[in-house]
Amino acid sequence: MKVNFLFPSNFKRLGLFILIPSSIIGLVTLFYEYEPTFLDFNMPAIFIDEILRGENKSFIGIVKNNILDEILAIFIIFSSVLVAFSKERLEDEYISKIRLESLVWAVYVNYGILLFSFLFIYDFSFLWVMILNMFTVLLFFIIKFNWQIFKLKQSANYEK
16, 49, 113, 141: which has the fewest C-beta neighbours closer than 10 Å? Predict the structure, then answer.
C-alpha cells in the first residue's frame, strides 16, 4: 500500500477526538431514540421509493427531518477515515503490510456478517443491520490494525 495516500500521523488524534464522542452519542440516540426538537429542519429529499410505487410524481421535495442522525453519521464516517488512514509515527513496509492485511480481513469479516444477515435476518431488523454495516468495515479495520500494531510493539518489547 502506498504511503502517500495516507493522512499525516497527527490526524489520528483529531479523528479519535471526534470519533469517540460521536460514537457514544450515536449509540445513546440509537438505543433511546432521542431526537432533540431544535434539530428539526425542512430538508431537501429524493423520493425514490414513492416514485417506484407510483405514489409521487416529484423526484425531489422537502421533508421535515431531525438531522441529529445525519450529523452523527457524517462525524463517525469522517473521523473513522482519519483514524484508519493516518500514518503511524514510524511507517515502514511491515506496517503497510499489516495495514493491507487488516483491511482485507475487515472486508472479509464485514461481508461474512452481511451474507449471514441476508440469510437469517429479515424485515426491519435487516434495515438496522444495513445501517450499522456502513460503519463496520472501518470499525473492523481500525480494531484489527491497532491490535496487530499492539502485538508488534509487545513482541518488540519482549525481545529487548
Answer: 49
Residue 23, amino acid: S
From first CA to last CA, the distance across the chain in angstroms is 29
Using DSSP, state whether 92 is helix, strand or coil. Answer: coil
SS3 state at 43: strand
**In the chain, which residue ranges form alpha helices assigned H by DSSP?**
11-32, 48-53, 68-84, 93-120, 123-159
Q: What is the pTM of this model?
A: 0.84
Domain map of the chain by residue range?
Answer: 1-87, 88-160
DSSP-derived letter for residue 104 is H
Question: Residue 159 and residue 149: Cα distance in Å, rounded?
Answer: 15
Average pLDDT over residues 15-36: 92
